[in-house]
C-alpha cells in the first residue's frame, strides 16, 4: 500500500467515526424531535407481540400447556352452556305459545258456556211466566158474571213466586220513609201529612235483582 493510499484510508476511517458519533448524537436527541403522529402502530404491536413471545419463551412449557388446556376446557364448557340456554329458551317459547293458545281456547269455551247458561236461564224463566199467562187467560175466559178476583189473586201469587225464585225483590217503600235516590224516582213534591222531604205516596213499585235495581219505585215527596 502506498503512503497516499494509507493516508486516504485513515481519512475515511476518521470521517466514518465522525459520522457514527454524529449519528449517535442525533439518535440520543431524537425523542425531543419525534412527531407522535408519525408513530407506526404496527411497529408498536410488533414490539408487544415480541414481548409476549419472550415471556412465553421464558415460561415453563408444561405450565403453558396446562393453561391452554384449561382455557380450551372452559371455552368448551361455555359453548355447551350457551347451547343449553338456547335450547331452554326455545323450549320456553314453545310452552308460552301453547299456553297462550290454551288460554284463548279457554276464554272462548267460557264465553260460549255463559251464553248457553244465560239462554237456558231465560228459557226457563219464560217457560214459568207462560204458565202465569195461561192462568190469566183462563180467568178472562170465564163468564162475565163469574167472580174472577180469587183467580187473579192466585195468579199474581204464582207470578211473585216465579220472580222470587229469580232473586227478584219488590221495592215498595212505606209513606214517611226517607228517599233513596238509588231506588226511588221522585215524581213531584206534594202537600202531605208526612215529614218534609219524606215519601208521601208510592205510585208504582220498583224491582231489584241480586242487589241491582231493575226499575226504580216512583214516589211523591212531602213538600218542605
TrEMBL record:
PROSITE patterns tied to this protein: GRPE
InterPro entries reported in the protein's UniProt record: GrpE, GrpE_CC, GrpE_head
Record localization: Cytoplasm
Residue ranges the record marks as coiled coil: 68-116
Pfam families with a match to the protein in the record: GrpE
Keyword check for Secreted: no
Keywords noted in UniProt: Chaperone, Coiled coil, Cytoplasm, Stress response
Record has Coiled coil as a keyword: yes
Highest rank taxon of the organism: Archaea
Spans annotated as Disordered: 1-40
Subunit structure: Homodimer.
Primary role: Participates actively in the response to hyperosmotic and heat shock by preventing the aggregation of stress-denatured proteins, in association with DnaK and GrpE. It is the nucleotide exchange factor for DnaK and may function as a thermosensor. Unfolded proteins bind initially to DnaJ; upon interaction with the DnaJ-bound protein, DnaK hydrolyzes its bound ATP, resulting in the formation of a stable complex. GrpE releases ADP from DnaK; ATP binding to DnaK triggers the release of the substrate protein, thus completing the reaction cycle.
Family statement drawn from the similarity comment of this UniProt entry: Belongs to the GrpE family.
Protein name: Protein GrpE
Organism of derivation: Haloarcula saliterrae
Gene from which the chain derives: grpE
